[in-house]
Amino acid sequence: MQRAALCVLGVFLLAGGVVAQTSEEYAEAMAQFRAEREERLRAPDSWLTLAGLFWLSAGENRFGSDPANAIVLSADGVPPWAGTFVYEGATVTLKTAPGALIQLNGKPVKRRKLRDDGGEDADVLTVGRLRLHVIERGDRHAVRVKDPESTRLENFPGLNYFPLDPAYRLDAVFKPYDKPREVSVSTVIGTTLTLLTPGSVEFTLNGEAFSLQPLVEDADDTSLWLIFQDRTSGKQTYGFRYLYADLKDGRVDLDFNRAYNPPCAFTPYATCPLPQRENRLDVRIESGERIYVGY
Q1: What is the pLDDT of residue 219?
Q2: 3-state class of 80 per DSSP?
Q3: The model's pTM
Q4: Of 65, 101, 174, 272, which has the fewest Cβ atoms less than 10 A away?
């Protein structure tokens, strides 16, 4: 979208401590937001590079290029048998096959208990050009594979958006609960996450009142994560979308122009949380990212 087209938005202000911007400032901020979003997707370790997701079975899980392995890795430089993941309880231990070259965080490794993504830093294994790490989802563990030469990344056509529209940037009201509540959130892989919601986000669109239930990692978070579905979902947009909104002084800068597709819109190997029942809106949100047609 051309900058000239973005600058016809007019001047608008948001109350409650949200920063006011002119149309030109807002257009520039949104252009940068979208450029950075696309840059992240084009990175050599983005969601577009996911090449596999393998759920581990108790005991030994052999991996390599041989189709007889439990985990089959299809890429140049991967030996028929590269190694074995030993899965015991919540522990995953790597055992490298004799003669195989595997690197752990950039250094050769023979045997090591692996850190999964439930902590601060998951261990990253390199096998040929592929990168592997262990993920934890509920009481299950899996090996996620990334290929920096993925055809999805190579053929990525870019993102598609609705026209930027200030009518979808709303000054919403935050209504806190007495204390944050635990909520169960389903995922696309059938697991359930227990997350926190600190209250509700109330807003008006097209003269109608709506409410969304945000999620946070910590009770003191002021960045609210919203997973929502609307009447464009599955048609003009993906089945659901994500949005982060800032909370300040009881007000929320709810900007649907920043709504974006979840990782599972780009790959079958993601484990995306789904929208809560409370976040299925009976209204069209013609704003933010449109449906992605590259996958």
Answers
A1: 86
A2: coil
A3: 0.86
A4: 101
